[in-house]
Amino acid sequence: MTVHCRASRPMGFRISLLALAIAAVAPAMADDATVQLEHVEVIGQAASLDQALRAQRSSDSISSVVHADAVGQLPDDNAAEALQRIPGLSVERDQGEGRFVSVRGLGPDLNSVTINGTLVPAPESGRRAVALDVLPAELVQSLSVVKTLTPDMDANSLGGTIEVESLSAFDHDGLFYSLSGEASHNDLMGKTSPKFSGAFSNRFSLGDGVDNFGVAAALSWQKRKFGSENVETGGAWDFDNGARLEELEQRDYVITRERTGLGLNFDYRPDDLSSYYLRTLYSKFKDTETRNAAGLEFDDPQASGERGDAEGWRELKAREETQEIQSYVLGGERLLGLWTLNGQVGYSRSSEKNPGGIAGAGFVGNFAGTGFSGNRKPRLLAGEDFYDPASFELDEVEVEKSYTRDQEKNIRLDLARDYDLQGYASQVKFGGKLSRREKTNDSDIWIYDDFSGVDLTGLQSGSLDYGLGRLGNGISASAIKGLIGGLNRADYYDEEESRINDFKMNEDIDAAYLMNTLDLDDLRIIAGLRYERTEFQAKGTGMRDGAFEATRSDNRYDHWLPGLHLRYQLGADTQLRAAWTNSVVRPTFGELAPGFVIDVGDAEASFGNPHLKPLESSNLDLGIEHYMGRAGVLSAYVFYKDIDNFIYNTDLAGVGEWAAFDEALTFDNGDSARLYGLELGYSQKFDWLPAPWNGVLVGANATFSRSRANIESQGLKRRIDLPNQSDTVGNLMLGWENSRFNLRLAANYKSSYLAEVAAIDDKAHDLYADDQLFVDFKAGWYITPELQLTFEAQNITDESYYVYTGRRSYNAQYEEYGPTYTLGLTLTHF
Hints:
This is TonB-dependent receptor. The protein is mainly beta. The protein has a single domain, classed as Beta Barrel (Maltoporin, Chain A). It is built from 6 helices and 42 strands. Strand 17 and strand 18 (424-448) form a beta hairpin. It is globular, with a radius of gyration of 28 Å.
């Protein structure tokens, strides 16, 4: 079945689904990192939810989890998309695939990600956020999001810490294996893609022990072919003359993403007093993209339907990027009487490599009688000469080669002692952690621009299948490479663009903490203090009036971070939670970049800011949870965050040392920001109803938040929302299952958010990402107790991605992807 819903849906449809999500909301799944999840040999939606809720009840933190069984039953291809079902979470999508995770409406760079307890560095050169689509869901045993940090945890997250735990042999009793194969079909591109995965674990007896040594392994491979269609203006609207457009571009993407993941884990438990483990994980993500584009830049801004003169262009981008993540964690625990000793050594490394792709091959020409129609999805209008390849001459070809590496080494030691305090059970815990992180970026750029008389005629590929208008023929990547292959590469090396993007950054963090847990009848109190000292160094190259300068910046700061957690048992099935925590989030590497370009003659400058202060936040959380039988919970949380030193992009022209400049683009710290919200949730299995209604399972959650922040530049101030913060995030899941069949319909909603801040005196050109509602479906049939046939339909409503300029009527970017259908077969043995 193929569904086409390219027209806008009625608003009532969105509101109805959201109303259902709000009607009964709560973390359907939650967990604490300190709680060991016990495997239940019943593969089912309700069993997975019930298992997670039992862990939530005893958790010391406010946290949420998706367990491996639940991951397998959600219509999700990767870890990021699985996490979007959790209360308060949404994902940033790239080409329709979930990549970065947002917690409680806050941007992904304000969260941290750990694998088996060690930090995951980011492959991208400018970010801290980890794109979780590089982690295939099959390699993951559990995904947890901790929203209130205890003092023994790293304090480097504002929204939450995402904890990834990989498979362990002690998650199952005896031999376990699972094998699966899938074929997915993308409706927009008409392509079918394969996927294969497998997992294995077993226990063995070493020495005098029985089943005391465990081995677990998981492997996943997928090669997905898909694409997208795009039209964008970049916000180039002239609102001073009645909303007239300056330029627009149509883009057609053809994409292949190949994912390979491997995990190999060992556990050794020689006796009841000690345990040791080695966790390894390797993930490779190869992204091949071909983008053909055609656009117009009007001589004078035009309104929809008008015609005039313009410069036209056609452009090709063809590149291949490979991201890799490696993680190795060695640790153990030993009981020494009333003392418990924990230790861990971790090493993780990520990288992104572009071996030298076409960053842009541009052809230009001049045209009369051009225009566009429509403001939301503008359609390019031009005469037949615009589609004649002889009308375009080759302007330049840019080739880019880059390599980014981010690695982190850490060692952690924790010591805890149980004791009695006037008849009440208590535990004191203290420890420390040393972390050493290094991030480097090396890029080389060549710009070939001596092509007089070379037109597009002999450099074409076939006609492009583009549904948002007329795009004509594509440009052949092999023909472009052949054209420049005979030229002397050294003659076209762009030293400025190459050197100013290179950097080496070191970030050393030393941490220590002390905390105490006290149980006073029905009240549990956790109080503690964490100290973190940060030393940061950045080296790079800048250019001032055509001359290169070596740059070096150093920054040191420390933080004392107190925390208090309370959990009170109101009754057998109801409990209250409260937490006051403090956290610190360091700027992204793109914001800290040491490179700069300063041109005094042109009065223009752009530069990073290695002296930015980290974001500091005091956080308050208060909630209530009521549990209702199997897989049932009602919960409500309120939260408040007081944030200092939030970071935004700004123009310092006209101020201080930039007083004589027309443009001085950089990043700066804002004064303060506030975020507050309400998080609601509900889940329940209706097993008390007569058949077939006893198989119904409902889960819903919604988070409502508001933010405000003040920015200042050029002597002006204005109030904005926190960038990337969505006011409303909601999920609705309707499921049904019995011993042979299971069905699940899942909807995920995210409201609009501020994506990019324009100049401080130009609010009309702020860019906003529009709201999105993704609906997915999955069905499973157990042919035998161990063999399951599954069918998935993702993005069945053909949701698009839309960014607008100031008001929803004015396009900045529109992109659509089409639905994807998957048929799979899974063999599982417990």
